[in-house]
Specification:
Blueprint lengths: L8 H12 L3 H14 L4 E7 L5 E6 L39 H7 L2 E7 L6 E7 L2 E8 L4 E7 L6 H5 L4 H18 L4 E6 L2 E5 L6 H9 L1 H5 L1 E7 L3 E8 L11 E5 L2 E3 L2 H10 L12 E7 L4 E2 L10 E2 L2 H17 L5 E2 L36 H4 L1 H5 L21 H7 L3 E3 L1 H4 L20 E2 L7 E7 L3 E6 L2 E6 H19 L4 E11 L2 H9 L1 H6 L3 E4 L4 E10 L2 E2 L2 H10 L11 H13 L9 H11 L15 E5 H7 L5
Helix pairs in contact: 1-3, 2-5, 5-6, 8-9, 14-18, 14-19
Length: 637
């Protein structure tokens, strides 16, 4: 007798169940997806003890025909496909015909269902894959499936389940994702006799986001719609202030099916580049509609993985969709509202609390004649033609007297006393004055943004009608510098200065290999380099940044930035280098700015591509309405 034998049906079913049913959340997912496929508009889910002892999923869908009730628990029995060719045009969440058989193989299952044309409902009890009872019952149209004693006959699998609380968390996560994807269905989740989630089922994704994540999250979401010949993408993405510490909050679905896909996640992350800090991830809830013959969902028994026929096209489309949405919306950070406040905003037109700050229109005019261009005179004295904006203030031009600054060490600087005639100094303060001063208006077209002063030598204070703004001068200038340097890099127009004596730099074999891989990058940055022996280079021309020539150390800094923690070449190295250059050359915290410099800083900031964050993702501006400020002081209750 040979060694190869045929396994019995019970063993086969338990092995198959191990592929489909990993934990209680897997059962909830499979049963809820069956309810969705049945056209349900309301799905109720109840669990106890993390789903280990009790799970019930009830829906008001079409139900199961009486003649099909026993077939439900047969392996590879399904009403959703007829042949292999149907696998290329799947329009339902389920299709493999394995879930119900797998569930029944490792638990006790009670099924109640009634088809719309049947006079009575059906009841079926099955345990460990064996039918125990079958009868007709009175039951409304729809289906109810109750699962008890999960993995009672596979103790090894039961042993590896986590705590009740952990398994409960997996279930909540599954139901939340289903609710976010199928907004026209009302989901109700009850855990240990306590309702933890109940969505309205009104077809509005923002309502579901509000229900699950709360008001502050819903207010910071941006609607996204994008369509081309390949795909249609719709959903919501979060402002940078909603950034999370992991990728859990990037939720994707394809044709209504929740999936995990690293390519989609990377496309969204790339679109948020320079808007988020390191190790932060975007908040996004997106549904992708694509022709069913352009995807393969039959990759894994759990059906949570998917393959696209053209990954690159989908990646590019998603990237453009998210990028356009971010660039066309205001991304300004706001003070968090008091959660328990019920007051109405007396300053809004509707009488309700204002959800968004007043819009700031970006100027269309160019800025050719300004204080930054005037500072080129200093650069030209060095025989350097450089139009880089320079915000490092000349202390002799500060509008606050040096003596006063030294005497008071005041944290707050205002700009009014310098622009008014001496006869007006000391005049009584008006409502538009700060500390008895008249704030000035920026050159932002018709937008009445008035500069109030400088706080701690770091933050610019400004007012626009009923909104109060605080601008981080370093982050703001860093964004300006980044856009400038990136444009110069892309056009190959970074200013270069030749050296009378070349800089000789020795490199290790690893650095030499890395340099050889990125010679074109160094050339676009303005370096002119020749080999000088086996493992050394001679730098004969260097880039000019902010009117100052770069040193040999800058060359080695670039090499270091091209490496990741493992010493391998990093992705998109030019982006990282430009960000570093912008940061090092931007005006620093504590640098005093004159009024003209401050005004020009804001003008140029709002002319950038992404004025609300620096390239590292930190906010450049935060805002608070007059209403929110008065709530802090309890003037409004």
């Amino acid at each position: 007798m040979g060694k190869i034998i045929l396994l019995d049906e019970s063993t086969i079913n338990k092995i198959a169940a191990g592929e489909v049913i990993e934990k209680p959340a897997s059962i909830v997912k499979e049963l809820a997806e069956n309810a969705i496929d049945a056209g349900a508009t309301a799905i109720s889910i109840e669990v106890a003890e993390g789903g280990k002892t009790f799970i019930n999923v009830t829906d008001n869908g079409s139900g199961i025909q009486e003649a099909d009730v026993e077939q439900v628990f047969c392996r590879h029995a399904t009403s959703k496909i007829r042949s292999a060719k149907d696998l290329f045009s799947i329009h339902t969440l389920g299709f493999r015909g394995e879930a119900m058989a797998s569930i029944a193989a490792v638990s006790e299952v009670e099924l109640k269902s009634r088809w719309s044309d049947d006079q009575a409902g059906s009841f079926l009890l099955i345990k460990g894959g064996k039918q125990l009872d079958r009868k007709s019952i009175g039951y409304p149209i729809g289906t109810s499936v109750t699962v008890r004693d999960l993995f009672y006959n596979t103790p090894a699998r039961l042993k590896f389940l986590k705590s009740d609380l952990s398994e409960q968390g997996y279930i909540v996560d599954i139901v939340e994702k289903l609710a976010l994807t199928h907004t026209g269905i009302s989901f109700k989740l009850t855990v240990n006799n306590k309702i933890v989630l109940h969505t309205p089922g009104n077809g509005d994704l923002l309502s579901v986001i509000l229900c699950i994540f709360g008001k502050n999250t819903a207010k910071a979401m941006l609607p996204l719609k994008h369509e081309n010949l390949l795909v249609r993408i719709e959903g919501y993405i979060g402002k940078p202030e909603l950034a999370k510490g992991n990728s859990t909050f990037m939720i994707f679905s394809v044709n209504g099916r929740n999936i995990r896909n690293k390519m989609l996640a990377e496309a969204v992350r790339q679109a948020y580049k320079t808007l988020l800090m390191n190790n932060k991830y975007p908040f996004a809830i997106l549904d992708i509609h694509i022709q069913s013959d352009l995807i393969d969902v039959n990759v894994h028994p759990t059906k949570q993985e998917i393959k696209f026929s053209d990954d690159r096209a989908v990646f590019n489309t998603l990237y453009v969709a998210v990028k356009n949405c971010l660039s066309s919306n205001q991304l300004m950070h706001s003070f968090e509202e008091e959660a328990d406040s019920k007051a109405e905003d007396p300053y809004s037109d509707t009488g309700k609390a204002s959800d968004m700050p007043l819009p700031i229109t970006r100027p269309s005019a160019s800025y050719q004649e300004n204080v930054f261009d005037k500072k080129r005179e200093h650069f030209e004295q060095l025989a350097i033609k450089q139009s880089m904006p320079n915000f490092i203030a000349d202390k002799s031009h500060s509008y606050e007297p040096q003596e006063r600054r030294k005497e008071t060490e005041a944290a707050f600087t205002d700009f009014s006393g310098v622009s008014k005639p001496a006869s007006e100094k000391g005049s009584p303060a008006s409502d538009d004055h700060v500390q008895g001063t008249q704030p000035q208006q920026t050159e932002l077209g018709e937008v009445p943004l008035r500069i109030l002063g400088q706080l701690f030598g770091t933050y610019i204070l400004a007012q626009q009608e009923e909104q109060f703004y605080i601008i981080d001068q370093h982050a703001a200038h860093e964004r300006i510098m980044y856009d400038y340097l990136k444009a110069r890099y892309q056009t190959g127009s970074i200013t270069v200065q030749s050296l009378l004596m070349p800089i000789i730099i020795e490199m290790s074999p690893a650095d030499k290999t890395l340099y050889e891989q990125h010679i074109a990058l160094f050339q676009r940055l303005g370096f002119e380099i020749e080999w000088f022996g086996e493992n050394a280079v001679a730098v004969r021309a260097i880039p000019i940044i902010m009117g100052e020539p770069c040193s040999g150390a800058f060359f080695t800094d670039i090499l270091d930035s091209l490496k990741d923690s493992n010493g391998a070449a990093a992705g998109n190295p030019s982006e990282k280098i430009i960000i570093s250059m912008a940061c090092k050359n931007a005006v620093k915290a504590g640098d005093s700015l004159s009024h003209e410099e401050t005004r020009e800083l804001l003008n140029r900031l709002f002319a950038t591509t992404a004025p609300y964050t620096c390239p590292h993702g930190r906010p450049t501006i935060i805002t608070m309405s007059r209403f929110e400020l008065e709530k802090k002081f309890k003037r409004v209750l």
